[in-house]
Amino acid sequence: MREMHATPRDASGLKPELTLLLAAPRGFCAGVDRAIRIVELALEKYQEPVYVRHEIVHNRAVVERLEKMGAIFIEELDEVPEGACVIFSAHGVPKSVPAEARRRHLFYLDATCPLVSKVHVEAQRHHAAGRTIFLIGHQGHPEVIGTMGQLPAGTVILVETVTDAEKLVPPKNAKLAYITQTTLSVEDAAEIIAVLKRRFPTIAGPHKEDICYATTNRQEAIKTVAPSSEVVFVIGSANSSNSMRLVEVARRAGAKRAELIENAAAIDWNALEGVTTIGLSAGASAPELLVEQVIDAFRARFALNIKEAAVIREDVAFKLPRTLAGA
């Protein structure tokens, strides 16, 4: 761990000392950064109103900031006036959505994370090869809905748990393949994949792991701070899959307590009495500004010693759509 800076005890000596273990990487990933930039540039280039189907990423602070800039968030395309500009969220959408947009003469931009698009391509490749596909993921999550919607209904079978994997009864003599949601717990997915491979030794998998680099890196980083932390806070929204998985990973890794918080205002300060070491991370859709605000809130109450636990430095960047590249 690398010590970043320390706030000395104030003159009165009343501030209790606290060590904050800051996980790195944390916060925005390249796919989230790209999706948000698409909305920002679309607002600049095409002016208001710009519609966004579903939350562009699962973070309330991000959505509220974009709303103030003029973005209008909707759930279905029938809320968009004909001829307007609409953006699809980073989670991806079923094929029926762009088809409907074209039918209604909407101008659309696809902010789907390229790593989610990679899973879509894999699904189509397996389908073309005549395989029955198992999708490891969480029912109802937009990414899962989008991935299953790349192929005809019934082609993709959702597998949520090890128990599901044990009970699967695929069509007789079917060729099989599996794909995964990109924001799963690495360990949970590995357990399910192990069952699938044991039961179906010839099952085909992805050429490269589907769980994205950012999910993996943030889970590895939180594992380094959790064992030494009395409490771990993960900044993120409750509908953010990767943020929820970070809380679960922290608990498994030895944190005495692990909690998801939306922002600094969500912290129960009374519950931290006597605590001397806290771990802090943020989901891939949580902006660094929220991390800074949480750190400032701790600094106001404690003589703070911040140590960063960095497992890797990320330098991934994704290209913008051509129509916005010069914006």
Which labels suit this protein?
10 helices, 327 residues, 21% strand, flat, Rossmann fold, four-stranded parallel beta sheet, alpha/beta, 13 strands, six-stranded mixed beta sheet, Cobalt-precorrin-4 Transmethylase, domain 1
Can you give a write-up of this model?
The structure is a single chain. The chain has 10 helices and 13 strands. The chain has 327 residues and is of the alpha/beta class. It has 3 domains: 2-28 and 213-310, 3-Layer(aba) Sandwich (Cobalt-precorrin-4 Transmethylase, domain 1); 30-113, Rossmann fold, CATH 3.40.50; 115-209, 4-hydroxy-3-methylbut-2-enyl diphosphate reductase, catalytic domain (Cobalt-precorrin-4 Transmethylase, domain 1), CATH 3.40.1010.20. Strand 3 (50-53), helix 2 and strand 4 form a beta-alpha-beta unit. Mean pLDDT is 93; it is low at 2-10. It has a 6-stranded mixed β-sheet, with helices on both faces. It has helices at 30-46, 60-69, 96-103, 114-128, 142-148, 162-167, 186-199, 213-225, 241-252, 288-301; strands at residues 2-6, 17-24, 50-53, 71-74, 85-88, 107-110, 131-136, 156-159, 175-180, 231-235, 258-261, 277-282, 303-310.
